[in-house]
Amino acid sequence: SLLYPxxxxxxxxxxxxxxxxTSEAISxxxxxxxxxxxxxxxxVNNNGVISFDESVRQYTPDxxxxxxxxxxxxxxxxxxDNVLGGDIFYRQxxxxxxLKDISQDITQYFPQNPFTATWALVATWDHVAYYGSTSEKGxxxxxxxxxxxxxxxxxxxxxxxxxxxGAASDGDAETGLGGTPAHAGFNSGDDTNFYNIPxxxxxxxxxxxxTSNVKVPGRWVFRxxxxxxxxxxxxxxxxxxxx
Length: 243
Known about the structure:
The protein is mostly beta strands. It has one domain (about 10-225). About 5% of the residues lie in helices and about 35% in strands. It contains one helix and 14 strands, in the order ββββββαββββββββ. It has one helix at about 95-110, and strands at about 15, 25-35, 35-45, 50, 70-75, 85-95, 120-130, 140-145, 150-160, 185, 195, 220-225, 235-240, 240. Strands 1-6-7-8-9-12 form a six-stranded antiparallel sheet, with helices on one face. Strands 2-3-4-5-10-11 form a six-stranded antiparallel sheet, with no helix packed on it. Strands 13-14 form a two-stranded antiparallel sheet. A hairpin with a 2-residue loop joins strand 13 (about 235-240) and strand 14. The radius of gyration is 16 Å and the shape is globular. It comes from Sinosuthora webbiana.
């Protein structure tokens, strides 16, 4: 599977069943550097965002850079409603087997910077429904923050994306499409450092399971401490699908 192991059997915490809800404040055992700033607290927000220092309950995504200056990573920012379906899991881990897998993957993608992970935060949205849904559609995706204490990376894994938009974002309640679709990328908190994954806030974001910057469909990997390496292999448009 493209996803790293997750769920209660992995020791994951589970977010409360609240529309626009969030995890409790997560005190990081290893501080995480993002766009040159170091953070010790994150929130795993139900609406597809991991935010630094404060939670994010906004359900309709905005393009980056954000005017409110919130620093966060957004694997799939959209109006999730886990009351209607699905679960959001997260854990901090120093499990050697998992860290070995993460290290091998990142070193493969960035061979000029050999990487041995010492810590990771794994957050997984498992078959989550959208607000106002009258369907059984669910999205499954994952974000991983990891470091060796010198370099800091984020991995986005997209396993199954069936909807783009909640009903309060003008999406269709039956299809989960239309309106203001999901957004994926990074916002540093200033006006100049940000990244929007191609297809964000367009209908094409439904195809994010087929796109990549590391030649692995459904996976995007970024070094985020200073964000020097945004895209390794820029995706190309082909027949209206991002490849």
